[in-house]
Specification:
about 45% helix; 2 domains; about 260 residues; Arc Repressor Mutant, subunit A
Length: about 260
């Protein structure tokens, strides 16, 4: 996607779709971005990378029009994570060879615009070239080696999928472990070793992320947002949300609504 914005434009705050990685290349001019509460200035030739679910606001810089090329990548390849998820990307990358990245983005856009029988092949080839150039340019280290499909990995991924499908209701650790067919103690140890945090903390992170997305992207009442995130008691929801984000749900929504005007 290519877009040209006039001076004074503003977008967001809005969460990135949970099923995508996002890449935005500043082709002409520049822009400000606030990503997960941190502010960055992107100049011409810089690259912005967002991970699934991250909240971002964008607005104009330098008082000039701005042109950017952006693409979203699916976060999975069948049953496997997209290889890009194994990299520790920063949000802001100052590129050594921005012209080469620009050309790679342009080739993807050109392939997408084709109408020939070989379009899909051309798109795949252009995306592979762009991916290679992004990895070479950013020099982003590997987050972890791609995991083997062993029992522990399969169990953890199944547990995460089950929890995400059941976020709208409270559940105990024992029920969660039983749902994936393992004792609670083994489940907790395995989950923590692979994910890097206890399962209860991880599921609370997902509930808070879902609530934040609902508050930013919908006009649902705060009580309904809490119910969608698995909280039957609005007071407990407000307490946990304030502890996590520093604002009550009502103040958080008002603060970001003002920032987006």
């Amino acid at each position: 996607m290519e877009e040209t914005k006039p001076a004074g434009w503003r977008f967001g705050p809005a969460p990135l779709h949970p099923g995508k990685l996002s890449f935005r290349f500043a082709e002409r001019g520049g822009f400000w971005a606030e990503i997960e509460g941190r502010k960055n200035l992107f100049r011409q030739g810089d690259l912005m990378i967002l991970r699934p679910g991250e909240v971002c606001s964008l607005w104009s810089a330098f008082g000039r029009p701005h042109t950017a090329i952006g693409l979203g990548f699916a976060v999975s390849q069948g049953e496997e994570d997209n290889i890009l998820l194994h990299r520790e990307f920063r949000h802001h990358h100052v590129l050594r060879h921005p012209a080469e990245i620009r050309q790679a983005f342009r080739r993807v856009l050109g392939a997408l615009a084709e109408s020939s029988a070989l379009r899909d092949l051309a798109v795949a080839a252009a995306l592979l070239e762009l991916t290679e150039r992004i990895l070479r340019e950013t020099r982003s280290p590997v987050r972890r080696a791609p995991e083997l499909r062993d029992r522990a990995t399969t169990l953890t991924r199944s547990a995460q999928a089950w929890a995400l499908a059941n976020l709208a209701r409270p559940f105990r650790l024992a029920e969660w472990a039983a749902a994936v067919g393992t004792p609670s103690s083994f489940f907790e140890h395995t989950f923590c070793s692979l994910v890097g945090m206890p399962p209860k903390k991880w599921v609370k992170e997902q509930r808070m992320r879902l609530a934040r997305q609902q508050l930013l992207a919908t006009s649902l009442p705060v009580k309904s947002v809490g119910l969608a995130a698995g909280y039957r008691d609005p007071l407990f929801f407000s307490r946990d949300f304030r502890m996590h984000f520093g604002f009550s749900p009502v103040r958080f929504r008002k603060k970001h609504a003002r920032a987006g005007r």
